[in-house]
Design a protein that fits this description.
Helix content: 25-40%
Largest sheet: 6 strands, antiparallel
Number of strands: 21
Shape: globular
Number of helices: 9
Length: about 400
Amino acid sequence: MVLTKLLIEHTASGVRTALTENNRLKEIYIDNDISTSRVGEVVVGRIRTIMPGQFAFIDIDAGKNAFANLKPGHAFKTGQPILVQVQKDATSSKGAYVSTDINLKGRLVVLHKSPPGEVGVSHKISDEKETRRLKKIVRALLPAGYGAIVRTNAGNCDKETIADEINKLYQEYETIISRGQYALPPAKLYPEDKYPFPADLISDSLDEIHISGTEEAFATIKRHICEISDITQSLSERIFHYDGKLLEHFGVKKQISRALEKVVDLPSGGFITIEQTEACVVVDVNTGNSAGAASYRETVLNANLEAAKTIIDQIILRNLSGTIIIDFIDMPGQQDKSALMEVLVVEARRDRLNPEIIGMSKLGIVQMARAKKRLSLSQVLEINCPHCGGKGRTKQ
């Protein structure tokens, strides 16, 4: 039996939110002065420069100007206000990436205007009959000029529950547009209250929610959880206040430290190494002291299959993004390669960011692409070495 807990540690320096299964850390979200993400914010910015090729720099009050790809045939001009939504946070070398396409996320539905009238359904809802039912319901409920994406949590929900959320998102969307016409840029319009964890972490699949901090902070966060997620009464009664160091109590603090290490052991004695660079992430799979298989072929296949699951775990936990190169142990047989790719694709479906798996080369190298929505765990918790200039090496 799997026991899933959400742990929210509220301190003076920020908030850390951990998702665990049987006390094993699966995801971690850190909100502090360094790492606070602006992804999802809707802002009235001001266009500073429009470059050839529909590329624009926009002031959204973030230090560095954000950048956006404007649509062909746009009528925007330098100095003009523009309504945008943050898609990717700024990095040390780039400003935030923003888009003129605004998407409002609910627990069940994402409401958008581009393209209008289109209804998509999460690929994690695999039942075709349920997919058709949800599409029919949402199409009938959509306001004119809007489109929607049905999220996994909507599976088996009744029409009235979905209608309530669509109406709520529609009212928020219309309010944003109305306020945006009169706001003095740069100005944030949405969300009015920023909470330090993704709303889609909250669902009835959780067994318990634990929150540390003052009684006032506990009451505020609990009220917000109940408001944004429409959780059952049963789960609302399993939200507990903890007076102390919550993550340390559940053994999560040590697991966060391990998630920064370069080497990760595999169950059968193999290991993977993870190198995060400015350009990409490189993962190398090694057999190490793998034992138990009847032949070398089985040893290699088992190590690769174990690595596939562990790599997806680590990508989610460390929030690795961009181009990810995985160097699996070479397997000459096409049957084994196909089995490995099958497992990797299935494991990747656990990731809410839906990484794209490009394929495997003849040498067993797999390329993945994963959207960057916030800083990686290493970028949040570590700094470049002041003695070696960030190389990780120093002179003898």
